[in-house]
Amino acid sequence: MVERLAEELGGSLVQTHTSWVILLDDVVYKIKKPVNFGFLDYSTLEKRKENCEKEVLLNRRLCPWVYLGVVPISEVNGEWVLEEDSNVVEFAVKMRRILENRILVNRLSKAEKEDLKKVARRVAEFHLSAERVDEFGKPEVMKFNTDENFEQTKEFVGITISEEDYEFIKDKTDRFYEAHSELFYKRMEEGRIRDGHGDIRLEHIAFLDEGICIFDCIEFNDRFRYGDVLNDMCFLSMELDFFGRRDLSEAYEKEYLKITEDPEFDIFLPFFKCYRAYVRGKVTSFLLKDPHVSEEEKNRAKEKAIKLFRLAREYAEEISV
Questions:
Q1: pLDDT for the residue 293
Q2: Burial class (CB in 10 A: 0-12, 13-18, 19+), 295
């Protein structure tokens, strides 16, 4: 049905694990698949509608110009019809289409420090006004995530991460909790635990005429959005470092610090950057076990994962314990 709808509209269809995305010249329709991965549940029409509405509401915080709303899809005479509510069988998030050359990942080679300073100001202002979720700043909440990472990457030791790096990063991470436990609670009291974006990455930042747009936040699981603001902001820092643009990551970080005046910035930044690099190394390593991924893609994934884990090791060396 989705393929036929895209064809009738004269658009192209892109699929992810969780969505069908119909790309037209000026707009995009994003339809959630009826899947349940545990951490993400789109299994019923009611849940898909709820998550569509949540996606629009949350993303309008950082990208109000792109998210147009939620529209119904009806089945009429055996065909799907967009923006028709006579016999609703599905819902879609309707978005303004962002040109590829406006997205940071596609303009990284010519990006300048001032561009990243603008992004930093956008992120910092957002964090200062976002909803507080203090309880998610407890060290045991973060430790649950890092413990899970180390457990899930054991099988990749000697493949995408060396045993020495694995043990070094794990030891530094665990000692960080012991050394700075009181600072986690201080950050909670000072309001540095917020409902953030959860996925501030190169491919989710666009330079529009209206301003900086940061789109595609995590709507399907609040736990993945809630947390320390530095953990939210530094995902982008890590990616910039990964692609060899430390000049841009430094400009981004300095501007963010200038606005937020975060007293624990230098202590927590290497810790959270290490966490972000490690998570990406883990997720990329998972592709090596995917039967649907070709050998060529697996080889590329292996090289990328190795590079990410090496970056995590570099950050771990900077962690103060």
A1: 86
A2: exposed
Say which CATH topology domain 104-318 has. Answer: Aminoglycoside 3'-phosphotransferase; Chain: A, domain 2 (3.90.1200)
pLDDT tens per residue across span 11-31: 999 988 899 999 999 999 999
**In this structure, are residues 198 and 318 in contact, taking their beta carbons and an 8 Å threshold?**
no
Enter the tokens of residue 177.
């909790």
Residue 111 gets which letter from DSSP? Answer: -
Q: Of the candidates 268, 257, 126, which has an alpha carbon nearest to the alpha carbon of residue 196?
A: 126
2-97 maps to CATH 3.30.1960: no
Nearest in space to 130 (alpha carbons), one of 252, 212, 227: 227
Express the helix, strand and coil content of the chain in percent, nearest 5 each: 55, 20, 25
Q: Which residue spans of the chain are classified as CATH 3.30.200?
A: 2-97
Dump the DSSP string for 270-312.
HHHHHHHHHHHHHHHHHGGG-TTS-HHHHHHHHHHHHHHHHHH
Q: Lowest-confidence range among 13-27, 129-143, 187-201, 230-244? A: 13-27
Token pair 């010249």 is at which residue? 25
Lowest mean pLDDT among 78-82, 125-129, 209-213: 78-82
Domain with CATH 3.90.1200.10 in the chain: 104-318
pTM for the predicted model, two decimal places: 0.93
The 10 Å CB-count burial string (b at 16+, else e) for 226-243 is bbbbbbbbbbbbbbbbbe
Per-residue pLDDT reduced to its tens digit, 32-55: 999 998 889 999 999 999 999 999
Provide the pLDDT for residue 264. Answer: 98
Q: Are 122 and 251 in contact (CB under 8 A)?
A: no
